Amino acid sequence: MDQSGLGNARGGVTEAFPDVSSDEGLQDRLAPAFPPSPLFDLGQLSVDWEEKTGTLWTFMTPEGRPSFNRGMLRDFETWQSEISRLFGNGSHDLRYLVLGSRFPGVWNFGGDLGLFAKFIRNSDRQSLVDYGRVCVNILHRNMNSLGLPMVTIGLVQGQALGGGFEALLSFNVIIAERSAKFGLPEIAFGLFPGMGAHALLIRQLGQARAERLILSGNTYSAEELHDMGLVDMVVDDGEGVSAVEDFIRVNSRKHAGSCAVYKASREVSPVSLDELNRIVEIWADTALKLQEKDLRLMERLVAAQSKLSQSISVD
Q1: CA distance 307 to 315
Q2: Total number of domains in the chain
Q3: Residue 88 neighbours by CB distance under 10 Å
Q4: Residues near 158 by Cβ (< 8 Å), separated by ≥ 6?
Q5: Where are the beta strands (DSSP E) in the chain?
Q6: Using an 8 Å Cβ cutoff, are 98 and 144 in contact?
Q7: What is the mean pLDDT of the segment spanning 182-195?
Q8: How many angstroms separate the CA atoms of 261 and 36, rounded?
Q9: Are 51 and 20 in contact (CB under 8 A)?
Q10: Is-above-0.85 flag for pTM?
Q11: Residue 304: pLDDT band with limits 50, 70, 90
């Protein structure tokens, strides 16, 4: 990758795309190109701009369990609004938006299940709905490329479960390393993925296949999802970033056509925010019907994921 606007690469994903908050000089180097913006100083998202290819690289840097906690959701809202503000006026040519994760072995575990259990025990339907609406609003804007002529790419290095899998389905292109795992485990504790997966999978797979996938609760490999047509490219472990670079280089001349194809596809199979919000309501009502045994199972999953996350971060 050309490092213009990024600083010098020192090997590896973390070093090639440094944490902006720990590099005081990076914002200064970006200052001539952009007005002051929180885009490059988000707590749980590390963002870097590559001028030569028109690529905005973003990596999740979660605090604690790698999930969509409320702090990360606020960062995503700021991320989207600032991308629209900085690139919407045409002064910079944003062609590709990439989202990966810096958490070793995990792209994202999805929803904040511990928070869900708290809301359910308190019979707090409104908080469940509010959380879901924030998620689907972010997802819906990403599905529509923020109204910008850009291609969105999900780079998966590790596990993408529940809401993590849902979020990926909103990207134009998914590039996954071979060891990546995907799944929707919600059915195990009496729920279903209510923040985008149902609407998107039915459109991509058809109703019968989508329902089988959701109701199975199974975990799938990158190869299996590639065979289903949900993952676009599977590459060897450690080659994800290079694969995205290669994809951008090879497809650069097709960029305008690609954007048009994805836009036309949205016209053929539109997903409205209203539809997504109605599904959130169904999800919230279903969540409030869960029994204590279901909540304990949910919390055991949180504990297992937290333990795995701690062991990975230590290693």
Answers
A1: 12
A2: 1
A3: 13
A4: 101, 103, 104, 105, 106, 107, 177, 179, 180, 181
A5: 45-50, 55-60, 96-101, 106-108, 151-156, 159-161, 173-177, 181-183, 219-221, 233-235
A6: no
A7: 96
A8: 34
A9: no
A10: yes
A11: confident
Question: Could you tell me if 134 and 73 are in contact, meaning their C-beta atoms sit under 8 angstroms apart?
Answer: yes
Pairing outcome for strands 159-161 and 181-183: parallel
CA distance 310 to 315: 9
| pLDDT mean over 220-233 | 98
Question: What is the DSSP secondary structure assignment for residue 67, as one 8-state letter?
Answer: S
- Cβ partners under 8 Å of residue 68, min gap 6: 108, 110, 111, 112, 135, 163, 164, 167
Backbone angles phi, psi at 14, to 5 degrees: -60, -40
In a domain, 3, yes or no: no
Q: How far apart are CA 142 and CA 154, in angstroms?
A: 11
Helix (H, G, I), strand (E, B) or coil at 136: helix
Cβ atoms of 14 and 102 closer than 8 Å: yes
Q: Given its phi and psi angles, is residue 218 left (phi above 0), alpha (psi -120 to 50 degrees) or beta?
A: beta
Residue 85 and residue 129 in contact, taking contact as beta carbons nearer than 8 Å = no
Residue 2 lies in a domain: no
Residue 74 has pLDDT above 70, yes or no: yes
Which domain range does residue 76 map to? 13-314
The residue to which tokens 């089988």 are assigned: 212
The token pair that represents 223 in the structure block: 């190869």
CATH of the domain at 152: 3.90.226.10
Is the pLDDT at 34 greater than 70, yes or no? yes
Asked if the structure places residue 292 within a domain, the reply is yes
Check whether 83 has a pLDDT greater than 70. Answer: yes
Q: Average the pLDDT over 106-110 and give the result.
A: 97
Q: What is the pLDDT of residue 310?
A: 74
Q: Look at residue 21 in the predicted model and tell me its pLDDT.
A: 39
Longest dimension (CA), the chain: 56
Answer yes or no: is pLDDT of 39 > 70: yes
- For residue 8, is it within any domain? no
